[in-house]
Amino acid sequence: MSKKSLLFLLCTMSALSASDQVVLVVAEEMNATYAQLSTFERKGARYLLHEPPFEVNLGRNGMGWDKGEPLKHEGDGKAPAGIYPLRAVFGYTQQAQTAMPYIVADAQRICVDDANHTDYNRIVTFDPQNPPKSFEWMRRDDEQYRLGIVVDYNAQRTPMRGSCIFLHVQKAPLAPSAGCTTMKQEHLEALIGWLDPKKSPLLIQIPKSMCTSIASRFEGISCP
C-alpha cells in the first residue's frame, strides 16, 4: 500500500467517531475478487459484533483507492477501498423493510456514469431532453438490483473517478462484479433491515493488511 493510500485511510477514520454502525468488508489483498463482510454496532465506547462474517463478491479487478494506488477510476472493474457513508436503499418494490431512505427502482430510474453529464454519479429519472451518453437502468431484467444499498463513493462527483457504487444482490456465488460489492439476497435483506440512518452507518472496505489499523483504534472491531 502506498503512503498516500495509508494517509487517506487514517484521515477518513475520523468518520467512525460519528458512526454507531459499521459494515466491515475485508479482502485478503487489493486484487481479491471476494471478501468477508462483518457488521458491528457501538454500545457505549465499544463496538459489538452484530452478525458473524459471510462471503461477498468484489469487482472483477479487485479494489482501488479513492486516493492512492491503485487509484480507482471509471470503468476499471474495481470496488472502492476506503471508508464511505451508506446513504440510502433502493429496490424494485414500492416499499422495503428498512429505516433507510428508500428509492423505488422503477422503469424510468437510471444511474448516470457519463462523466461529462451534469448528473454524473447520481440516481435520477431518465430525461429524454437531456439524456446521458452512458447510464444504467436501475430496473434490470435480472434480480441483481431487486435490492441494494447506495454507497456514497465519489460524493464530489469528480469526473472519471467512478460512479454508481452499490451493495446489491450477487449474480452468482463467487461471481465478481463490475465494481460493486455483491452478496446473497437473504444477507442483503438482513443488512438493510438492520441499518439505521440515525446511527450514521459506514462501509469500511479494505485489504486485510489495513484491518489491524482499524481494529487498534476502535475497540471491539475485529478482523475476520
Give a nutshell description of this structure:
With 224 residues, the chain is mainly β. The chain has helices spanning 3-12, 185-194, 208-217, and strands spanning 21-27, 34-43, 46-57, 63-65, 79-91, 102-104, 109-112, 123-125, 135-137, 147-151, 166-169, 181-183, 202-207.
Question: Which helices and strands appear, and what pairs or packs with what?
Answer:
Elements: H1 3-12, E1 21-27, E2 34-43, E3 46-57, E4 63-65, E5 79-91, E6 102-104, E7 109-112, E8 123-125, E9 135-137, E10 147-151, E11 166-169, E12 181-183, H2 185-194, E13 202-207, H3 208-217
Structure description:
This protein is mainly beta. It has one domain (3-217). It has 3 helices and 13 strands, in the order αββββββββββββαβα. It has helices at residues 3-12, 185-194, 208-217, and strands at residues 21-27, 34-43, 46-57, 63-65, 79-91, 102-104, 109-112, 123-125, 135-137, 147-151, 166-169, 181-183, 202-207. The strands form 2 sheets. Strands 1, 2, 3, 4, 5, 6, 10, 11, 12 and 13 form a 10-stranded mixed sheet that branches. Strands 8-7-9 form a 3-stranded antiparallel sheet, with no helix packed on it. A hairpin with a 2-residue loop joins β2 (34-43) and β3 (46-57). The longest helix has 10 residues, at 3-12. The protein is globular and about 50 Å long.
